Amino acid sequence: MVQIYAVNITDFPDESIPHLLSFVGEEKQLRLSAFYRREDCVRGLLADLLIRKIAAETFAVPVKNIRFGTNAYGKPSLQEPLDSLHYNLSHSGDWVVCITDDRAVGIDIEKKHAIDLQIARQFFAQEECEFIEAERDNERRQARFFTVWTAKESYIKAIGKGLSLPLHSFSTVREGTVEGWRVYDQEEWHFKTYVLDDEYTLTACAQNGQFCEQVEIVSLDTLLPYFLSFSQ
Hints:
Layout: E1 3-8, H1 17-21, H2 26-33, H3 38-59, E2 68-70, E3 76-78, E4 86-92, E5 95-101, E6 105-111, H4 118-123, H5 126-133, H6 138-159, E7 180-184, E8 187-194, E9 200-206, E10 216-217, H7 220-228
Parallel strand pairs: 1-10
Antiparallel strand pairs: 1-5, 2-3, 4-5, 6-9, 7-8, 8-9
Helix pairs in contact: 5-6
């Protein structure tokens, strides 16, 4: 079954950053440490720790033994022998989210904000534009934009080919909704949206159509002690 996890960064203790960074790879440590904004570092760090904890518990291996690789387009994955667990990460604002399954998956979360809807005409497929513009209320029209946007991003991330696939070349909307079954490039994909926070839009994409009913909220009180209990 497709599982989805989420962590809220609001109460993250900054003093724990140096210790927690010791659990990620050297290259990522440098990248995270280079962020100017504290929130960017925290989101990236928690994303890494979250998938490490999930993988460690799934395969009963130490968190520091987990290794990651990337494909030719930069999509990260777990290295053998843990590569049977497919995952994807996303973060925005106060939230970090992770999706896992034994088949390809993608996820995207975005904090909603006012946006020029002409962007849809520029980047989205015709059916998606019509879906957005059919809503007369501006706030709900903006919400539809982010539903389409996160769905497209989740599929792009699931196939792992980056932006080599033009956004307007496929439609996530079918029969007036983003959710449900689609066929792209002779492969079956499934979309599902989740309500995590009224200020955010969250959409998942997976080859497996069996989605969890709700997002599992992982508290910092659960996640951080898992790592802080280890000595450096």
